[in-house]
Design brief:
single chain; alpha+beta; 60s Ribosomal Protein L30, Chain: A; Phosphoribosyl-aminoimidazole Synthetase, Chain A, domain 2; 2 domains; 5-stranded mixed sheet; 8 helices; 14 strands; 29% helix; globular
């Protein structure tokens, strides 16, 4: 039990999930511990989500905090089975920040919103004294219409589901770590940051059913799988050999002693679909540039009261793959 907030509370792992649950209990939230909401209206189901972005540094290879703020919220809407439509944009900036830098970030927001086909419709600006924040923090909220007949939730994974990932893992986390220059390592790693609405559109258009979608951001693939396992009360098994990891990311992780399963992604989707549709899902998604490396990495094997994730190692053993503990990579999103 912690008497004070520590960095681990925002790292995406076990402590953050416990804090969210505690706050939800106090607020008597109808969907406790869930960071998204589905609103039932007369015109259909509306998806709503909000997120704050505090990436350090705010610019890395292949991504900046402006692009991230748009794609991060767009992808949260996608995981609810919704077509992203409208976003808000609120900026908290440090006194003394260069105007050119701010406009570079805003231009990035514009390009990202155009690519994701969403509109920025409202927002806010606050400026704090120097040292009151680290250059720039961004909050975005998003809304979209849930596709008719789609029911996507981390509560819905079922035994027999195949577990699919739409590309290599850990790219964004490795790019942020490399950009900090703290370890004096050279690594040509680019963030995977991208909008994923085209992935959802393809699944819906080709009538590929799915039970759950999740984007493995803070805490990486391992933490996201544990979130689904615990919420759905199932046991998940994945194969290390099947998980796509780029050589440069793997080499970077090996030098630093970090497992790529805990590095965040910002352009990947984990899909839980009935086994009978798994091969079709892979074929469909490999036709898109953003998901051209889609592959099956495991399955939901059984019910489990507590929920658990296991990984079959390259050596053939089976070990637990728990949710992230600690902060191996803070401030990535």
């Amino acid at each position: 039990m912690y008497d004070k907030i520590v960095l681990e509370h925002g790292a995406g792992g076990r402590l953050m999930h416990e804090l969210i649950q505690t706050i939800s209990n106090v607020l008597e939230s109808p969907r406790r511990g869930v960071d998204k909401a589905i609103l039932n209206t007369k015109i259909g189901k509306i998806a709503f989500t909000t997120d704050s972005f505090v990436m350090k540094p705010p610019v890395v290879k292949g991504c900046d905090i402006g692009m991230l703020s748009v794609n991060g919220t767009v992808n949260d809407l996608v995981t609810m089975g919704a077509k992203p439509e409208y976003l808000s944009l609120s900026l908290i900036m440090e006194e003394g920040l260069e105007r050119d830098f701010v406009m570079r970030i805003i231009e990035s927001v514009r390009r990202a919103s155009e690519k994701a086909r969403v509109k920025i419709v409202t927002g806010d600006i606050k400026v704090v004294e120097k040292g009151g924040c680290d250059k720039i923090f961004i909050n975005t909220s998003g809304i979209g219409m849930v596709y008719r007949g789609v029911e996507s939730s981390t509560l819905n994974a079922k035994p027999g589901d195949a577990v699919i990932v739409t590309g290599s893992i850990g790219d964004h986390g490795a790019a942020v770590l490399a950009a900090r220059g703290e370890f004096q390592l050279e690594a040509d790693v680019s963030s995977d940051c991208a909008p994923l609405n085209s992935v959802l559109e393809a699944l819906v258009k080709k009538r590929v059913p799915f039970h759950a979608l999740i984007d493995p951001t803070r805490g990486g693939l391992a933490t996201s799988l544990n979130e689904v396992a615990e919420s759905s009360r199932v046991s998940i098994e994945i194969e290390e050999e099947a998980i796509p990891v780029k050589e440069e990311v793997l080499g970077f992780c090996e030098v630093l002693g970090i497992e790529p399963f805990y590095l965040g992604c910002e352009g990947r989707l984990v899909i839980f679909t009935p086994q009978a549709y798994a091969d079709k899902a892979v074929r469909v998604l490999r036709t898109l540039e953003v998901s051209k490396d889609t592959c099956i990495i495991g399955s939901v094997v059984s019910r489990s009261k507590k929920g658990e994730v296991r990984i079959k190692t390259r050596a053939g053993g089976l070990r637990a793959l728990p949710m992230l503990q600690g902060i191996p990579l803070p401030r990535i999103c």
